[in-house]
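Hi P.,

Sorry for the delay on this. The queue was packed all week, but I finally got your sequence through. Input first:
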Amino acid sequence: MATTIEQIEHDLLKLPKQERAFLADRLLSSLDGEVLNEVDAAWVLEAERRFKEYKSGKRQVVSEKEVFADADRVLK
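Then the structure:
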């Protein structure tokens, strides 16, 4: 079975990023929300941590323009 999974992984990693992201979302959704609930909870904790850092002055504000420019760089 490991060989089959490894082959599938190898083949899927050849897909464009957008198609891999779509597939990843479909696979996670197929898990009846168990993983998504854990992921959602982790993101809530991370958002709270970042907000506390921002309020205490440890984290600087990043403009929307900078955020999207960084995202474009990462996705290209």
